[in-house]
Amino acid sequence: MKIVREALAGTLESSDLMVRITPRDGELAIVLQSEVMHQFGARIEAVARECLAKLGITEALVVIEDKGALDCVVAARVQTAVSRAVDEWTADWSALS
Amino acid sequence: MTDDLLSYTIDPALQPDEREDIRTFLAKCGLDYEIGVEAFVVFRRKRHLVACAGLEKNIVKCTAIDPEMRGEALGLRLLTELIHLAQDRGHSHLFLYTKPDCVEFFRSCGFYLLAEVPGLVALMENTPIGVKAYCDRLKRLRRPGAVIGAVVMNANPFTRGHRYLVERAAAACDWLHVFVVAEDVSLISYRDRYALVSSGIADIPRVTLHHGSEYMVSRATFSAYFFKEKGIVGDCCTAIDLLIFRDHIAPALGITHRFVGTEPFCPTTFKYNADMRHWLRGDVSPSPAVEVVEIDRTECEDVPISASEVRRLLAADDFARIRRLVPATTLELLETKYRAPRSSAA
Questions:
Q1: Distance from CA of A32 to the nearest CA of B (A)
Q2: Most exposed residue of A49, B115, B196, B316, measured as fewest CB within 10 angstroms of its CB?
Q3: What was the ipTM of the complex prediction?
C-alpha cells in the first residue's frame, strides 16, 4: 500500500503511543522517542517495522512518541495510522496479528 | 481520578458563553485570552472548567490546567485532544510558546525546544526532526569560505535598495546566502516576491537564493505572543527569531555575517537592528557569534529607497516615481498585477 496523506493515531497517555505517518519517497524512516528508550527502544522500533512490512509499506516517514506501550498496542496504533494514510486498505486484518 | 472528565471542542467566535468562561479561567491561571484563537479544547469536571488549550492556525496558545488538577496527567490528555484537533483542521506541524519552566512538561507531550530566552519565553515544535531536517537540507548548500554572509528580506516589493544591499554584501563575502521571507501575508505574494528577487540578483556572483521557511521571520517565530509584562513583548519576538537563526540556521550554512540595511526613519527597525547585534553576537548563546553588518541604504534624490515608500506610491498610482526606485522587472509586475484600481478614467 502507498502512504498518500499524513495521518495520526494514538494518544500521549501512559502505556500508549502517538504515531504520525507521512508520505516519503524512496525510504522508510522511523523516528522513535520513548520514555523507555533504553530498555525497549530497539524492540518498539522492530515491532513497528515488522507491522509496516506486513502492510507492504516501504516508503514513509513514521514518527513515534511512545509512553511505554506494549507490543500489541504499538502494532495496533501503527496499523490504524496506516489505514488513515492510504487511499485503499488492501491488507487482510486477520493476517496482521 | 480523571474519569468524570468531559472534553469537547469549541469555536470561540460562535460560543460566547464558553469563550467568557475560558477568559476567566485563563486569568485565574495568569494568562491572557488571545483573540486570534480559532478553536479550543476544553475539559470540564462536573461543570467546572479545569483545562483548556487553543489553536491559532498551527500555533498552540492559551494552554492552561487548573492548579488543583496538576499531577493527574491531565496535560497529556489535553495535548492529545489538541494535536488531533489540529490534524483535523489540517495542521500537522505545530508551534508552541511557553514559559521556560513549562518546557519539560511540553517535552513529555512530544514537543521539542527550538529556542529559549532564559526566564522569559521558549518556542517549541511538535516534531523531533523539524528544524533538524530543515538544517540538514541547508547543509547540502554550504559553500567554502572564511566570510559567509546572509541577508533575510521580505522584498515587498523588490527595490533598487534590495539590489544594492545584496551587491554590497556579496562583495564583502566569500559567499552570500539570501533568504526571502516565505510567510504569505504581504501585499506582494510570496511567489512574486521570490521571482522578483531571483531575477533581480541573478547576475551577482557568489550568491545562493533560498526559499524562506517557518523557522525564519514567520508567523511562528514572530508570533505576537505576550506576557503580563507587556513591555518585553517586542524583545521576545525578535529574540526567538534571532536565536533560531544563530543556533540552527547559521551553523548549518556556516554563516559568519548577517547584513541588514539601515532604516534611518523607523525607530522600530533601528531597535530591531540593535536587538540583532545583541542576540546574534552577544554572550547569550553557546553557538558561534554572527557579526551584524549594517549597510547604508542607497538613495534616490537624497531620499533612501524603501519598499514601504514604493507601496505608498503604488497606492497613489505614482508610477513616475516608482520607476526610479525599482528595477524594470518589479515595475512591470506592479503595473500589470498590483496597480490600484482607478476611480475615474485618466
A1: 9
A2: B316
A3: 0.91
